[in-house]
Amino acid sequence: MGYGIKAGSILIKEGTLLPEALPIESEPCVPRWSLVKEFDGYKLDREIQKTGWTFFCLAGEIGALAFGMDRQRAVHRAISRILANPRSKDFNSLQITRIAAKRFLGMPYMSIGAQSRHIQNGMVLLSDEERQPSQTQLTSIRTTAWGPTSTREVVQGGTNGQAGAATTASL
């Protein structure tokens, strides 16, 4: 592997939508994930922002350990464990924040820290359900407003783009 994984390295999930104006070279790293070759997290963030897209950085580090004499294989195993973590499942990229070679009772291991990232066209981070197109269309919204003497329900809904409204008041 010509480009080694180091702190600042970015991995992107296969099938991730990327800005057309930003050519990104990558190489396979772990199954279904590729290592970005020429960008670290900061440089990639600046380039993505220039295209009008957003490279979200999510709070909290995800860590993993992998024992083994071969450091590169241990790093790949630790990254696979991080990607298997439920906290990293809903996002399309990962930034390596730390890599450390350590020993425990003479046994070598690698300690990896990473942060979930997400590349998206838009300024608002959407949930996983909102990012995927829905087969059903929302037809009504129901809101209840509480007051000292009344409850008011507003129901909006309609068909063919026409919205109707009804208001009811009670004690």
Explained architecture:
By secondary structure, the protein is an alpha+beta fold. The chain is built from 3 helices and 10 strands. It has helices at 41-50, 71-84, 128-131, and strands at 10-13, 26-30, 33-36, 54-57, 62-67, 93-104, 107-120, 140-146, 151-157, 164-170. Strands 1, 2, 3, 4, 5, 6 and 7 form a 7-stranded antiparallel β-sheet that branches. The longest helix is centred in the middle third of the chain and has 14 residues, at 71-84. The model is unreliable at 133-171 (pLDDT under 50).
**Percent of sequence in beta strands:** 35-45%
Number of helical elements: 3
Low-confidence stretches: 133-171
SSE-based structural type? alpha+beta
In one word, what is the shape? elongated
Strand count, sense and closure of the main sheet?
Answer: 7 strands, antiparallel
Radius of gyration: 23 Å
Order of helices and strands: EEEHEEHEEHEEE
Helix content: 10-25%
What is the averaged pLDDT score?
Answer: 74
CA(first)-CA(last) distance? 72 Å
Number of strands: 10
Question: What labels would you give this structure?
Answer:
3-stranded antiparallel sheet; elongated; 171 residues; 3 helices; 10 strands; alpha+beta; 7-stranded antiparallel sheet
Short summary of the structure?
The protein has helices at 41-50, 71-84, 128-131; strands at residues 10-13, 26-30, 33-36, 54-57, 62-67, 93-104, 107-120, 140-146, 151-157, 164-170. The protein has 171 residues and is of the alpha+beta class.
